[in-house]
Each structure stands twice: as C-alpha cells, then as structure tokens.
Amino acid sequence: MATSTATDTGRRTLWTGATLATLAGERDWGLVPEGALAVEDDRLAWVGPIAELPEGWRGADVEVIDLGGALVTPGLIDCHTHLVYGGERSAEFELRLQGATYEEIARAGGGIRSTVAATRRAGEDELHALAVPRARALMAEGLTTLEVKSGYGLSLEDEAKCLRAARRLGELGLSVRTTYLGAHALPPEYEGRQDDYVDAVCAWLPELMQQGLVDAVDAFCERIAFSPAQTRRVFESARTLGLPVKLHAEQLSDQDGAALAAEFGALSCDHLEYLSDAGIAAMAESGTVAVLLPGAFYFLRETKLPPIAALREAGVPIAIATDHNPGSSPGLSLLLMLNMACTFFRMTPEEALRGLTVNAARALGLPDRGRLAAGLRADFCVWDAAHPRELAYWFGRNPLRFAVAGGRSRMSVHQ
Ligand code: DI6
Ligand code: FE
Q1: 285 alpha carbon to ligand 2 midpoint, in Å?
Q2: Ligand 1 near 248 CB (within 6 A)
Q3: Residue 294 Cβ contacting ligand 1 at under 6 Å
C-alpha cells in the first residue's frame, strides 16, 4: 500500500490513534481500528493499521499527530447544491403550508423566478458574501468538496456572475465544482419563446466554458421547466464541448429524463421520485449515479419515495446531497441528510455515508476522493464518535472535531 519513497521532499504528516472508516472496498465500512493516515502534501500516501506503518514514515521529518481514538472518515461531498442566490422564499413556504403546491407557485411566476429577480439585482460580491456563511455551515459538518449550480441568473452575464461567486468559495478551504444550469427556468424576457431561450442557453455555454466556469452541464427536465427534446439540445451542446452532463430528472413527474441522460452517459440523475423501471435500467447500463435529495423530499412534503430498493437491486450507485436552494430545500446540514436518508429512504447508515462520500465523488466525476486510500486526496473528517453509524444516528448534534482538506487541517475554522 505504501507509495512513499526516500526521495519524497514534501510536507509529511502522520495522523495516528484513529479508527478509520475507509469505505475503500465495494461494501462494508472498511473499518481499521488503531489506524493511521500518512499524508504527503495534499495526498494520502499510505492508509492502514499503525502496526503496518512503512519504514519511511518513522523518521524525524514526519510530523505526528495523535487523534486520541477519534473516528476518521473521508471528507464529505455535497454533490448537488444551488448555493449562490439572492433573497429567500419563506413567504412561499407559508403559501405551501396553506395548500398551494410548488408547481402552482412556479406557474404563477413565483418560485425559481422570484429568486432569479433577487439574484439579478445582486452583484457578484454580494452573492459571494451571501454564499460564504452557507458554505461555512456545511463545512462545520465536514464538507470538503462542494458542487454549486448556476440557474438563478438566466442570462450570460448573470450566470457567469453566479458561477464566479461560487468558484471563489474555494478560498474558504474546500474544493468547488461548478455546474451550468442555464436550463433551470424560463426567464421573463423569453416568455412564450422557450425554444429561443434554449438556443441562448446553448450559445452561452462555450463562452462560460472558455472562462473556466463550467465543470458540468445540468438541466431541469420537467413539466414546469424544459421538455426532453429541449434537454437533449442542451446535452448535445455539452457533448460537442466534451462536458459531462447531469439532470434534474423525474422530480415532480416521469418525463423519461433519466433514460435521456443515460443516453448521454450522464454523471448523475438527481431527485428521481418518479423514476420508472426503464429509467433505472438505463442508469444501471450507463453507470449513472442516482443522487437522492432527502431535504427537498422533506421540505416539499413529498410522499412518493424514489425507488430505492429497485435502484439498489439494479446496482445503481446512490449518492445523497442537500440540494440547498431557497425554494425546495433551504437546509444546510449534511448530517441531517444522512439521518433523513435512513429514516425517509430506508438507506442503511453505511449506504448513506457512501452517498455523501464515494458515490458523491462519482456523481461529480472525481475518482480522486470519497474514500480513504493511498493516492487519493487527503480530504478527511475527524469525529468524536466510536462508530461511523453514529453520524447518521444523531441529529441536531455535530460530532465533528475538524476536517482536513487537501492535506491542510481546517481546525481553526471550527474553533
Ligand atoms: N429542483 C429543485 O429542487 C431546485 N431546482 C430544481 O430544479 C429548486 C429550485 C428553487 O425552487 O428555487
Ligand atoms: Fe436541485
């Protein structure tokens, strides 16, 4: 397992006295009692029981940090958020509690469109400043990689502004991936001209990509948003540029979106409450990750469960995420998502943690993280817990001591 050699010159740290939950194999927690992590710069150089520590890590050049019996897991990954936006939608929450549906509010011009108006009014710095405490809230529970979607700007300038504000969150000490979701809603200036707007979304993509703002392309394929034919056009533009795609699919109704996304080798299909058997088969075939969003399920008081047992049966990898956004999931707790993935979706605590680590990494096309194994990024969390299942068990209690992101301890952030 050792990859270090005598020629290593970088910063070398040995973290000892830990119970590791590596999630390194296909199943089980990958528990290593009395484990250690050897970190060189931003990489895990060696992971295993301290008794098997390679010779090269016993020298005076190695800083040793004893974790005193803490639990260590891979760093947490939120693979689906809409973290950058202006305003908030608590009035819409009240309306929904009085009986209006999410769909009705959207059709009446509220919903996503009201956030678009507030986001367009804000400048990049203001949007960034609004997003910082949201990112910090996620980091306080172990976030080390964050995906942020655009989709509240809906013009070239406003989408670029949001994506830039999102990218700057990387300065906080986490990895940020940005996804272009121009096809999220129809902006008012395109009323009645939906196909023209889709043309514009496709036309903006090369420019945004050139500015280094796009890691993946997403769309909202739904009755209240974009049709499968329109989604296909967005995906074709992405494919021309070699960009991976993701899809908000079957959230409110079955549009056969998952099968369409699978045809394009999508990294993930997200939401999926109304996913059909054919959609599951297509995702299994293409290796597309199912990203389940318990926060939106809960906050929209959805009663139709995503087909978890069938996804599991078909071998589709399942990730979970916050879907943080002001309309359908204004939550900022990764640990609550773990808990709700178990209580609402009947996932096991191990499946839920895989959903926030290894499978979330896969949903972002990032094979270099999500597990504790030599060669991967040194992103990990140090918890006051004896067993990893506790992470899904407590709610409203945060057992994180600190996280390490890219080999750097973020202790100061939490103290
Ligand atoms: N589905 C969602 O849950 C979010 N976007 C989407 O396509 C909600 C966005 C919002 O309501 O502002
Ligand atoms: Fe979403």
Answers
A1: 24
A2: yes
A3: no
Segment 252-281 mean pLDDT = 98
Domains of the chain: 2-74+369-414 (2.30.40.10), 77-363 (3.20.20.140)
Neighbours of ion ligand 2 (CB under 5 A): 323
**CB of 111 closer than 6 angstroms to any ligand 1 atom:** yes
Residue 412 has pLDDT above 60, yes or no: no
The answer to whether residue 6 scores a pLDDT higher than 50 is no
Q: Report the C-alpha gap between 337 and 52 in whole angstroms.
A: 35
Could you tell me which of 393, 356, 399 has the C-alpha nearest to residue 76? 356
pLDDT at 2: 42
Nearest CA to ligand 1 atom 11: 327
Q: Which residues contact residue 369 at a Cβ distance below 8 angstroms, ignoring those fewer than 6 apart? A: 74, 75, 77, 144, 145, 175, 361, 376, 377, 379
Q: Relative to the CA of 102, which ligand 1 atom is closest?
A: 11
Token couple for 187 = 């902006």
